[in-house]
Amino acid sequence: RRWESGLEIEGGWEAHIALLEARRRFVDVLMWRRHGDGGVRYMRLSGEPVLDAAGAFAGYRGVGRDVTLQKREERILRLEHQVALALSEAEDETAGVRAVLHALCESEGWGGGQYFVLDETAGVVRFRDAWSVAQPRFERFAQAFRGREFEPGYGLPGKALQTGDTVWTNDAANDPRVSHELPWLATGV
User: Is the separation of the CB atoms in 149 and 143 below 8 Å?
Assistant: First the structure.
């Protein structure tokens, strides 16, 4: 049964199960599954009851379509509007950076984000600001970076500086690319 498989559904399973028990048709019901890597796969499903030759309910016939890209595009458009609004309402650069970090983290479901600035003369990136959810673990992690700078190849910010590529992690506090280079993370910060 879908409701026992880890799928989530718009409007909740209770209403959908009642519709199925009543043998009613459903159209474009949004369902999604969260994956271990943090990704989400979205589907829109439609179905109608099928009756056998005697007129008894035999099951459902339906179609589904993957709408993951559409949902991502919708989220990005909402994020663009949130960022534009945040920047237009910001009292100063610091408030603007924090508002953008907040909007980005909420959009992506992240617990926090950090902003680093390149110092080309010194050849390092320096911590500039952070935003995190109001949980001690995330707040300690963000606080631990205050005043820090990273040379090329050192920590995730330094790896990004060294390669010029974006560097992603789902859990920086437990990422081996960070913890073995930044032992202060493993000490509980």
Answer: no
